[in-house]
Amino acid sequence: MRRYFGRKLAIYALTFVVAVTLNWIIPRFMPGDPVLRMLTRTSVSNPEAIAPMRAYYENVFGLDVPLWKQYVNYWVELFQGNLGVSVWLFPAPVADVILHAVPYTLALLLPSILLSWWAGNKVGALAARSTWLDNTALPVSYALTATPYMWLGILLAWGLGIVAGVFPVAGGYSFELRPDWSWVFVGSLALHWFLPFLSLFLVAFGGWAIGMRNLIIYELEADYASYLAALGAPRRLIRRYAFRNALLPQITGLALQLGVLVSGALVTEIVFAYPGLGHLILQAIQNQDFFLLQGAFLFIVIGVLVANFVIDIVYVLVDPRTRTGMQGAA
Amino acid sequence: MTEPGQLTDTDHVAAPGVPALAEPVVSLAGRRRETLHFALRNKKVVGALVVISGFLVLGLVAPLFTDHGPNEYVGPPAAGPSADYWFGTTTFGQDVFLQFANGIRSTFVVGLLGGGLAALIGMTVGFVAGYRGGLVDELLNMLTNIVLVLPALAVLIILHAYVGVTSVPMQAVFIGLFSWPWVARAVRAQTFSLRSREFVDLARLSGMRPLAVIRREIAPNMSSYLFMTFILLFGGSVLMAATLDFIGLGPTDAISLGLMMNSAVHWSALHLGLWWWFVPPGAAITAIVGALYVMNVGLDEVFNPKLREM
Amino acid sequence: MTLQVDDLRVCYRTLMGEVRALDGVSFTVADGEIMGVVGESGCGKSTLGKSLVRLDNRMKHVGGTVTVDGEPLPIADDRAMNRFRFTSVSIIPQYAMSALNPTRRIGRLVADLLDAHGMSYAATRPELVRRLALVGLPETVLDSYPIELSGGMKQRVVLVLSTLRDPALLVADEVTSALDVSTQRAVAQTLVEFRDRGYVRGMLVVTHDISLVYQIADTIMVMYAGRLAEKAPSDVVVTEPLHPYTQLLIGALPEVGARFSERRLTGIPGRPPGLRNPPQGCRFRARCPLAFDKCAEQPPFVEVAENHQVACWKAGS
Hints:
Chain B: It is found in: Cell membrane. Chain B contains 13 helices and no strands.
């Protein structure tokens, strides 16, 4: 068990190092000297930002310092939580800006991922046994999973937001309100949250439903299912086993889909001008705020790595095969 | 079960419990013909092919009938669909249909190039790791795992932002570079299981070089799987490109379906009610990617006789 | 009489048409009898074994009847068969190594199964533990996951589980083919012991390994291309086979057919005919060294000596 997690953690640590290194290398070594380009561009868009930016640059990318020193400096700054200063929201530190946005992104991502996973698995399992449901839910699921996240978001915003006027289509809460914990504010939060959540939920739901439906059919053909049937076990018992076993690859699938789900959340936030990381990224791109962009990148990587690790732990808890294999009992 | 041909043959056509002993050994060409036969009779495959080739023809042919570029201001601003402008015009008077047709072109370029590159890298890494094993496998596996957990979109955003993507092929290459890991994983696992099979041993014993063994013995036995992988990668690349374009990191010298949606949202098409601006591009992506997925299901039924309808 | 099979016909549905895997098979298994069913791959022996317990969704019952203890089995009706499975007919499948749900502890699996049959696990457990001990398994296997057991252990668990309710008939389908030689013998002996203790009354041991079945079976039935070729007491089949196919089969064995032991093991030249469009007459004709004109007509499966039946024109004369 320790070896298994050790291995996993090693991979995640390495991935983090790679991500940080990429973050350092890309601006530094890309053709056309993006660092220079960045400095000249930002000087136009926000004159005040130049001094602190130059200071940060001198330290991290200081051209008179040897390369390895620049690299080390970058790590040192990183561990001090210094990701630079935002140009767009000058003089706010990038880390603060991002920490402000993260709760919104998590509030979209966590419920939509978990609920779509749960509902998709349920419906997929039902579709595997009902021809009627198979013929209706399956085509819908294929259409949903092929839909680009932002398009479904656009359609929902237009249909339910603008045409029907039921939901607001921009922002995290009504702009007349100031953030506090009053019912009015929480209600406004929920109202603004619903459509982006719904579009994320729907697209992800399609994928899970298809996955479960195919997995369960595969499981129902497995040897253990045939043996149980040969021993006169009722379909109910066999289906229960098949469902439980089919859930395991769906958990792995969750880890594999994380990247896609996160990117879905980013673009959905852009559609709804929802104040999470996706919105920040858009602003960073439009304002040439590269520190903010890089900071957001690191946060996303860290988030995905943490989520991966959580899924690893869950998997070990639910699949006896990994547990026994790790203890070397076999 | 001693001849190599027979082994693959039984894998392919036999119903369980009825070994293909009774069948004459089917040649590779015969198998291909049989596959084609079933593929053309499979409604899912044929339907998907019709949808995809319809879009492909539209993307290839429609732009030929006009002298205007997709971003030129040719008509009245914000006009709805009409005989002159089938999909209406943008707030600036650009022809949405023209943009749409050109965008489909870009979509196919991204899918083919990005999916193709990802398939190539994934297969190479997977074959080599699975066939060589040992340290090579350890290293490649580690690389695969790292790229696998690294959120591709985030990396691509940084790359696009700094490097500045100018053309659709360039974008496709970037996407391909970061979407191969799951292919490598799957191919590695399959190669592992195939390499210990009799006919591969036979080839190895007879002094075939590793590359030749992979190319002549292992790859053909996975060809159906590899083809289906490519289809999924194609769809994945299309969605990824649409996402990047929508964020505003698309190619600067071309139009794409994602860029259309980006402009539509950016210039308040939703509030102005210009639905013809943002509905077609998303619908086209959904239709193309959906058709690819359905084709994959159909091909699965064709390649995997167990799933064929009886 | 435990089992009576009359003119059983079962086919596989494939895209190219129906494959008649079992084409008119009739025989009986007496109380306490172990019958070996042998033949090349694809001769229908596994199909025979499976169709007595459960037709999978590619198999179709075409004709014929099966009775166990005088009660007809509704083999074409999957649901109605559930009443007979486990209690009256049972099977040790070919895939015994993977027959247990990998994510369920074995004890829980047995409990679920008994529960589904309306039986109490707690009440059955002592007997279960006794039988596990009989095959050399400790009680702790009930707390294990299948992955924690070796292949041979899983095989024995399946053997115990399949026979837990003392079925009238047990089909053992290629139970030894995945095991090494010493384990094979042990499993074969266990089958005999289970019969002797009355855990199973009749047994159909389906295998391609005549030398193994010779050690444990009372009767051996040889199948060829979906039909019965020869059936006789084990000694008779091995020492005085009458059907040319049986003779060649025995000849291909290094151990039992001592006369041919120094000859290289070549098997029987040629292949069995395809069963989609089987040839008229004797199906072994094309490979038979003794074939003559009359073989164009199908030879009947007749008793040529006491308890010795053969389907060959040459055998009767």
